[in-house]
Amino acid sequence: MASWEQLGELATVAQLTGLDAVRLIGMIVRAANTARLHRRNCRQFAQHLKLIGNLLQQLRLSELRRYPETREPLEHLEDALRRSYVLVDSCQNRSYLYLLAMGWNIVYQFRKAQTEIDRYLRIVPLISLVDNARVRVTNKNPSKLSIICIRYQV
C-alpha cells in the first residue's frame, strides 16, 4: 500500500507531465536555489543540469519529438528529470530530523539521479545523427518524407 508521501510524489510527477526537458531543468534550478536541506547537493546538481539545459536549448526538441525513434529517448530523459524535480523539491519541505535519519539516502538518490540523466544524455549525439540522416534523406527525396510521415500517423 502506498504511503501519503508516495502519493504526493506521484501527484507532483503527474503535474509535471507535458513539460519539456529545458523547462524541467529550469524548475529544478529554481527549486535548488530555495532548498533548505542538502543545499550543497541541490546546487551542485542544479549547476550540472543548467549546463545541460543550455546545450539542450540548441537542439530542436519539438521537431525531434515528432519521430518515434527520437521521441522515446527524450521522453525517458524527461521522466528522469521529473523524478529529479521531486527529489530537489523534497529538500525544501523536510525537517532536520528527517535529514538526520535519511541524509545518506538522499545523497545516494542525487547520485542515482545524476547517473540516470547522464546515461540518457549519452544518447543525444546518436539522436542528432538520426535527425541529420533524416534531413539528408528528405532533402534528396521529398516524396520519401511523405511516405515516412504517413507511415507514422497511426
UniProtKB/TrEMBL annotation:
The keyword Cell inner membrane does not apply. GO terms for cellular component: membrane. It is found in: Membrane. One of its GO terms (biological process) is cell surface receptor signaling pathway. The keyword Transmembrane helix applies. Keywords: Membrane, Transmembrane, Transmembrane helix. It comes from the Eukaryota. It is a single-pass membrane protein. Its main location: membrane. GO terms for molecular function: calcium channel activity. Transmembrane segments: none annotated. Residues 24-137 form the MCAfunc domain. This is Cell number regulator 13-like. The lineage of its organism: Eukaryota, Viridiplantae, Streptophyta, Embryophyta, Tracheophyta.
